[in-house]
Amino acid sequence: MNNNGQPSILLIYTGGTIGMIENPETGALLNFDFDQFQHYVPELKRLHLQIHSYTFDPPIDSSDMEPKHWVKIAQVIADNYEKYDGFVVLHGTDTMAFTASALSFMLENLAKPVVITGAQLPIGKLRTDGKENLLTSIEIAAARNSVGEPMVPEVCIFFESMLMRGNRTTKINAEGFNAFRSYNYPPLAEAGINIKYDTLHIRRPNPDAPFRPHYSLETGIFILTLFPGIQKEYVEAVIGMKNLRALIIKTYGSGNAPQKPWLFEKLKELDSRGVILVNITQCSKGTVEMRRYETGRLLLQAGAVNGYDGTMESTVSKLMFLLGQGYSKDEILPLLNTSIAGEITIPEE
After folding, report:
1. 110 and 214 in contact (C-beta within 8 Å)?
2. What is the DSSP letter of 42?
3. Which contacts (CB < 8 Å, 24+ apart) does range 298-302 have?
4. Could you read off the pLDDT of 230-262 as tens digits, one per residue?
5. Closest CA to 16 of 98, 107, 111, 89
6. Is the whole model's pTM more than 0.90, yes or no?
């Protein structure tokens, strides 16, 4: 909150379609410039907020987003944490769910909103979805409850009227404005005439613990997607990666794999080498239940741990985060079965 009582928001432009502005004469797309940006979104002034911007130079195309860029975003937020009431990150859509998931782990005990948004059309286009996504994201980042606390003090994605927990989202549409969905967790808010918050599902920080950013990530991870007719040579090529620290196995249904003895033997070999094995489902909705069928039990015996209803994006970033903290395999395994930032649902026994 600044001196005149207006909430202050830091807009972080990393790259992506939303910040591209079309030159009306040439039709060429120009990179983000906040002063020009305000010309296309004059409604920003009507929000009565103090809005400042930080721009990546050069902007990063979403498909080029890397863990080092997640570190930079986390550093910008941490460096400005005490100066602003909330943060809005403008990001390309292709890897947005990865970034949102990673930040949810990297920004431990976050007590301020970090809302990530973008657009399918540039902000200067007549039919752009970017203007509504931007304005509502800023409004959410500045929103406070009756006692002055942030309405949503966690990392979120806002897209097409829906506010979703960042580590629960995945991109589902390359063309439509409804680009993201959270299949296994309800929306945190829905924006219609009013913004309706689901306060029961919004995470709250520990008031007795400090905000703590983390910057170390380890990328020695590979994903093995199972499919009918999968060959031994293919699996051997996948698991033969140098410096492999963890393998995510994308299985069928509730966590099942084909009953090929050589497959389980290969997985057991990896487990004995200290490689972490995580079982997640290829289905968008639902959870892994490894004791439900014999094929799931065989994966348990091979050393795989249950990834429950975690998305592929959150499982990847969670492993990068845990490995980056220098934890041993024995320390990481129980944390994979723990909801660190609301990323998985642990069923009641």
Report:
1. no
2. G
3. 298/257, 298/259, 298/264, 299/249, 299/251, 299/255, 299/257, 299/264, 299/267, 301/264, 301/268, 302/264, 302/267, 302/268, 302/271, 302/277
4. 999 999 988 888 889 999 999 999 999 999 999
5. 89
6. yes
Q: Which of 193, 213, 233 is the last residue of a domain?
A: 213
What pairing do the DSSP bridges indicate for beta strands 170-171 and 162-165?
unpaired
CATH number for the domain harbouring residue 234: 3.40.50.40
Q: What's the pLDDT at 121?
A: 78
At 89-142, the pLDDT tens digits run 999 999 999 999 999 999 999 999 999 998 887 776 667 777 888 999 999 999
Range of the domain at 160: 8-213
Distance CA 97, CA 157 (A): 8
Catalytic residue among 17, 93, 136, 281: 17
Distant-in-sequence, close-in-space partners of 118: CB < 8 Å, separation ≥ 6: 16, 17, 18, 62, 90, 91, 92, 93, 96, 130, 133, 159
Tokens representing 197 are 């918050």
Q: Report the b/e string of 110-128 with b at 16+ CB within 10 A.
A: bbbbbbbbbbbbbbbbeeb
Q: Is 128 a catalytic residue?
A: no
Mean pLDDT of the chain: 91
- Looking at the structure of the chain, the number of domains it has is 2
- d(CA 190, CA 206) in angstroms, rounded, equals 25
For the chain, what's the residue count? 349
Amino acid 283: pLDDT: 95
Whether 158 contacts 133, CB under 8 Å: yes
Amino acid sitting at position 140: I
pLDDT of 27 > 80? The answer is: no
**What's 125's domain CATH number?**
3.40.50.1170
Question: Which residue from 173, 175, 143, 146 is spatially nearest to 156, judged by alpha carbons?
Answer: 143
Q: In sequence order, what are the beta bridge partners of 183?
A: none
